[in-house]
Specification:
single chain; 314 residues; alpha/beta; Rossmann fold; N-(1-d-carboxylethyl)-l-norvaline Dehydrogenase, domain 2; eight-stranded mixed β-sheet; 14 helices; 12% strand
């Protein structure tokens, strides 16, 4: 298998939160996709959500409107894992973050997928080597870390394990570019990859500011949303520092870095929320109060904003 054009058949294992979005994007770019889940209800829901996602891509101008039904027709739901991966050139695992479950699935995929197939995990938690160890083809295993929602955010992280071959990584990079993504290659596996390490650093600092009484959660989110968060959709943190000059960035860093949170333990303010059962949207309360109406409004606003970005990128 020499190039991304050779990957014609894709299997997506797990039809939940991420699976349907991963599947619909490959289908929109002409691939045949088999999406697997043990639950018929989840599979049915995934197909319905795939239609909604494809319609959103059409509204944004990313695909022609007459391609929505054709793309949906390229997705097949399959309750049998072995059948789902039987003819796959690429298998993407997108099940819940349970390492034992993932290793069991990778062992089964390895036994049933063609010998040339590349196997990847969409995990945001586990290293490529952890799932590759369950297979007999570690050179053909990597992590492809999507961000949610996967079909509306162009960035993906291609993470190499210690045994992932250069040819596997190069093929994945080319494939994702060919379907309109912006892949970044993580040369060596590290916990959290790039995106989650940066997000966790910001989250830790935000929680520290709340915990020590400097600002409320609402005030912190407002600062991020209305100032540097907007710039980060255009330029990355290193680019932005080069824009002002690395000498000035150093001067700011000398004064600020020593004062930043650097705890190795989990923030007390977060643990207290969890212990009290205030988990956020799923319980109706966290740092914010949530109602079904406010959740739906938030999700619509987020989707609309991401679709606007896609339109601008066309």
């Amino acid at each position: 298998m020499n190039g991304p054009g050779k990957i014609r058949n894709v299997a997506v294992i797990g039809a939940g939160l991420m699976g349907h979005g991963i599947a619909l994007e490959f289908a929109a770019y002409g691939r045949s996709v088999s999406i697997h889940d043990r639950s018929e209800e989840v599979l049915l829901n995934a197909m319905q959500r795939a239609r909604v996602g494809l319609l959103a891509l059409a509204r944004a101008g990313r695909i022609p409107e007459d391609e929505v039904e054709a793309s949906l027709a390229r997705i097949g739901a399959n309750g049998d894992l072995g059948e789902a991966v039987r003819n796959a050139d690429l298998v993407i695992e997108a099940v819940s973050e349970n390492l034992d479950l993932k290793k069991t699935i990778f062992k089964n995929i390895d036994a049933n997928a063609p010998s040339h197939a590349i196997l990847v995990s969409n995990t945001s938690t586990f290293l490529p080597s952890a799932v590759a160890s369950a297979t007999k083809r570690p050179s053909q295993v990597a992590v492809v870390h999507y961000f949610n929602p996967p079909h509306l955010l162009p960035g993906v992280e291609i993470v190499k394990g210690p045994e992932t071959s250069d040819s596997t990584a190069e093929l994945l990079m080319g494939l994702y570019r060919s379907i309109g993504k912006k892949p970044a290659l993580v040369q060596k596996e590290i916990q959290g990859f790039i995106g989650n390490r940066l997000q966790m650093a910001l989250f830790r600092e935000a929680l520290s500011l709340v915990q020590n009484g400097y600002a409320t959660a609402e005030q912190i989110d407002e600062v991020v949303r209305t100032s540097f968060g907007r710039r980060l959709s255009v330029a990355g943190p290193i680019e932005l520092r080069e824009l002002i000059g690395l000498d000035l960035a150093l001067a700011i860093s000398e004064q600020t870095i020593p004062t930043l949170a650097n705890d190795r333990t989990l923030p007390r303010v977060l643990l207290e929320k969890i212990e009290s059962g205030n988990l956020g949207v799923k319980t109706g309360k966290g740092f914010y109060e949530w109602t079904p109406e406010s959740v739906e409004s938030w999700r619509k606003n987020m989707a609309d904003a991401l679709l606007d970005m896609i339109r601008r990128d066309q």
